[in-house]
Amino acid sequence: MGLSGERLARAGAELADEVGFDQVTVSALARRFGVQVASLYSHVRNSDDLKVRIATVALTELADQAAAAVAGRAGRDALVALGDVYRSYATTHPGRYTASRYAPPTSVLGAEFVAAGKRHSELMRAVLRGYDLDEPAATDAVRLLGSVFHGYVTLELSGSFSYSEPSSGASWPRILDAIDSLLRTWPERHSS
Amino acid sequence: MGLSGERLARAGAELADEVGFDQVTVSALARRFGVQVASLYSHVRNSDDLKVRIATVALTELADQAAAAVAGRAGRDALVALGDVYRSYATTHPGRYTASRYAPPTSVLGAEFVAAGKRHSELMRAVLRGYDLDEPAATDAVRLLGSVFHGYVTLELSGSFSYSEPSSGASWPRILDAIDSLLRTWPERHSS
DNA sequence: TCATTTGCCTAAAGGTTTTAGGTTTTTGCA
DNA sequence: TGCAAAAACCTAAAACCTTTAGGCAAATGA
After folding, report:
1. Which whole number is the average pLDDT over B37-42?
2. Which residue of B has its CA nearest to A158?
3. Which of B117, B151, B171 sits opposite A140 (nearest CB)?
4. Residue percentage of chain A with pLDDT more than 90
5. What is the pLDDT, as a whole number, of residue A109?
6. Chain A, 38-77: which CBs lie within 7 Å of strand D?
7. Which long-range contacts (CB under 8 A, 24 or more apart) does A12-17 make?
């Protein structure tokens, strides 16, 4: 049948997009391959291992798309391109996006997952090159960017923005504008 | 034994803080009460119903704390107070905080949950009274605020900020400063 | 007093996780 | 070519979670 850890992770990612990440189960995956459940345990340590593998696939894929979007752009263009990648990835692959935020409870992170995470923060730092920020403001700004992107996308996905006008799609570019404007005039350290 | 939906929700919230929201299970809760599992099904429709009840408890509790923090404050003070409530709630009650973001997949939301959600957005809107924003900027700003608060707190909780200096606690006040500054100078509509 | 409701129980069916051990096929090497 | 070892998948079984069905006993209230 040609199963492997890699193959299971990719199939699991597809399954996550179809039924939701928390519905992804070793059993469901075995069913999809028309194979006995126990067979998967040769390729995957346990259920959590499977989830971490899916998370790694998703985080890496997202980093690839982010890198492609940021390449050759700077300043506001780069900021918008990066933000749009996160948002559209979450929209087209909700299960994968949820997976990408799955940090194993046992704090036993794979090196590959950590590396993908590092790529993300480096891409944000690259975007910030178009603005004039020194340390520690640059780190603060990376964290702000991550928070806004992740927060907006998560809230939108969970339907939190569906109760008010205008559509969540309309706020997004204006929020990116606001962040761009903020980065261009990052405030000095407030006394007290 | 004096069980009830209310009581189970509160006990479930405590359990969530101890073992994590996704480890909260009807069985575990029954064990905690020293009672047979099936007994809980008189008070709770099913496992998802239990989770929604816990989510409602958490979202309401958080709204209460937020309201208390914002009362009597305006402008930057109110902004910082509100943000700090979210962050400290998530720190001291990680399970409850996670629960508060649990929207039932079946899109069958309880009225109480929706009401608590509305209180949150109204509190943010109240904070924005200290700044000079008209529609639709006010709605955009509410969404930005929600994104930053939720995003930062989530990323911090999941350990995403633990890989770089300075500590995540140091970035937080500077980010609130930045948001305050942004709200005071919210940009005009960018011409494409 | 007695019928009803309430609250918890036993029993049982079905699903997921994980381990243990078996069989068959593939692979690599002498 | 022939064979030993590894790889891939299987059956069996134990443990736990979810949910439904039906029972008993105590509290309630007319």
Report:
1. 94
2. B103
3. B171
4. 86
5. 75
6. 38-39, 42-43
7. A12/A50, A12/A51, A12/A53, A12/A54, A12/A57, A13/A54, A13/A57, A13/A58, A13/A93, A13/A95, A13/A96, A13/A99, A15/A95, A16/A54, A16/A58, A16/A95, A16/A96, A16/A98, A16/A99, A17/A93, A17/A94, A17/A95, A17/A96
Share of chain A above pLDDT 70, in %: 96
pTM greater than the 0.85 cutoff: yes
* Nucleic strand C within 7 A of Cβ A43: no
pLDDT, tens digit (0-9, with 9 covering 90-100), for A76-94: 999 999 999 999 999 999 9
Kindly list the distances between the CA atom of residue B151 and the CA atoms of A39, B98, B112, B148, in Å, as whole numbers in the listed order.
Answer: 39, 12, 24, 5
Chain B residue with CA closest to A184: the answer is B182
- Confidence at residue A23, expressed as pLDDT on a 0 to 100 scale: 95
| Sequence letter at residue A10 | R
Residue B4 has pLDDT above 90, yes or no: no
CB A98 within 8 A of CB A21: yes
